[in-house]
Amino acid sequence: MKTINTRFGEVEYDPSHVLDFPEGLIGLDQLKHFLVMPNKKEGPLFWIQSVDDPAFAFVVTDPTGFFFDYLVVPDENDRQKLGIDENGTCFVLAIVSIAPTKEITLNLSGPILYAPETNKGLQVILEDARYSTRTPLPTIEKK
Amino acid sequence: MLVLTRKPGEGIIIGDNIIIKFIEMKSGGIRIGIDAPRETKIYRQEVYDRIRQENIEAAAGWDMTDLDTLSDKLADRTLKK
Q1: In this model, does residue A25 exceed pLDDT 70?
Q2: ipTM score of the complex?
Q3: DSSP code of A25?
């Protein structure tokens, strides 16, 4: 077991459970290893904590829980980086931000692909005008 | 920065396998074509910069009580459990 000091206090982790981002995050390519920190509260949000730089932790969520039709399919190149073939399982995660108004937004234009079989992750860029780096949650119509 | 002048139809070669062709000038923009190996990542710079900036900002500004409040708010609104 190893330990790092984070905003969560001292965190002990098993190096074999570390998520591997071979390319780091976009613009932050030094961040190649993350720990999944379960949230204390029930809910769809969880933290990923950088092992390489303890100052970096991100809140992520499964965007398909909020956006039914949001679909990101890894291309051959992405799959190669994730170490999976075309039948490999790949989940999509979105990084969550909080605005000063306490509203939350999802980065749907730079999602994270995650392959559980290899424990590898990859942030990709979607050049799709429908998706923003700060996509607000869809409003719920009250019945 | 290396600055070159090219005419429509002309190109430049970067390294051994990247070719950039200048296709035409059109309504204030320049259309370019890029031939590069599939594994070469090509993005519009402003899109890349926006995601980089968002990554940096997303890592800051959280405090733990925010997350608890949000988790409560969101727990009953995800479409699938």
Answers
A1: yes
A2: 0.87
A3: B
